[in-house]
Write a structure and sequence with these properties.
single chain, 184 residues, alpha+beta, Homing Intron 3 (I-Ppo) Encoded Endonuclease, Chain A, GCC-box Binding Domain
Length: 184
């Protein structure tokens, strides 16, 4: 994250227009001092000025290349709006990585960010932190607390394990959307 501090906020302001209603970044006509030559400046501006900045990666987070480095658009938005780079991770409150409206972004620690995760792709029980233990033939529930995985017990049914997990999530301050399936 310290490398981002090398990219000055004033430089970003010369590059982008932030549309608050959509959360999108658009390229501005960039000044000559951003380029090695007048021709490079003219070619770049004729191709990109006015276009939406960046492209989505495989997780749908939009990223933009500036000065030969890739920056996530939600971090660029935060820096433009607040005038400083975020001190830690940026969380999309509603879980939608394509929604970069400033009211949907917040600075959080890794632990806080994990408490707002959707359901894991490899989840088979329907509840994060609940799995079938085939040898013991019980449903186990666990949760991460203070950086460590903590057992919540073994249960006869997936529903009982899910109840224990949800109670622990509430006690530890997980968001209400934690563990939602992608289609929810």
């Amino acid at each position: 994250m310290t490398d981002m501090l090398d990219l000055e906020i004033e430089y970003l302001k010369e590059c982008f227009v932030y549309e608050a209603s959509s959360g999108c970044l658009f390229w501005k006509q960039r000044p000559l001092h951003h380029f090695a030559s007048l021709n490079a400046c003219a070619v770049w501006n004729s191709k990109h000025a006015g276009a939406e900045a960046g492209s989505p990666n495989n997780k749908k987070y939009r990223s933009t290349k500036i000065k030969a480095r890739l920056y996530q658009n939600h971090r660029l938005v935060w820096a433009l709006v607040h005038g400083a780079w975020p001190a830690d991770q940026i969380d999309h409150i509603n879980g939608n990585p394509e929604d970069n409206r400033i009211e949907n972004l917040r600075v959080v620690s890794n632990a806080e960010n994990q408490r707002n995760r959707g359901q894991s792709r490899n989840n088979t029980s329907g509840t994060n932190g609940v799995y079938w233990h085939s040898r013991d033939r019980v449903w186990n529930a666990y949760i991460r607390e203070n950086g460590r995985q903590r057992s919540l017990g073994a249960f006869a049914s997936a529903a009982q394990a899910a109840i224990a997990r949800k109670a622990a999530e509430q006690r530890l301050g997980y968001t209400t959307r934690h563990g939602e399936s992608k289609s929810a």
